[in-house]
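Our consortium's second objective concerns turning raw sequence data into structural hypotheses that experimental partners can test. To show how far this objective has progressed, the report includes one record in full. It was chosen at random from the queue rather than selected for favorable results. The single chain below, 204 residues long, was entered without modification.
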Amino acid sequence: MKFKFYALQLTAICVLIFILQITLPWLTNLLLLNALAFKEIWRFVTSIFLHGNLAHLLYNAFALALFGSILESLIGGKKFLTIFFLTGILANLIAVNFYNSSLGASGAIFGIIGALVVIRPMLLIWAFGLPMPIFIAGILWAFLDFIGLFTPSNVGNIAHLAGMFFGLLLGLLFRRKSTSNSNNKGNRIIFNEDKIRSWEDSHL
């Protein structure tokens, strides 16, 4: 199974599009998710690659590059892309019913996390100041997003939860093959705590 670096390529695309957003201010309104999405269906995809500010981009780029690369190494590039785009689009299909507008890769990133929770639940990461299996971290992130539904914010908690839900489903679908193709059971991946904490704080 050849590693294609798709997660890093998607991260680079997000960075490039953010530069275009800065240089072409009208681009964001053309591509973000809003009520027009049911007529202009490209918005369900293009909004995934948009970001509201530099901090939003950096947090998502960090998570996409790390979690995405781990998932891609486990199940292969094509299945990784399927999870990224399908969870991102499905999260947007849910989110468009609750938010006037939204943008960002968070729904797809939570989809990636959801898939990892199923495919490699005991993968050790550093989150919330402690080393823990990713399935525990996933439960905590989902719980904090659920709590966030009841507090006013600019965070798309519903999109996060929807992305994770669909990621869990796709993870179940791909788990058997990914397990048989991987010889790295029990891998330990330790993330930089400051960066992962910053990403958590920006989304929860």
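The partners drew two points from this record. The domain at 6-203 is CATH 1.20.1540.10 (Rhomboid-like fold). The two ends are 35 Å apart (CA to CA). Both points have been shared with the crystallography group to help prioritize constructs.
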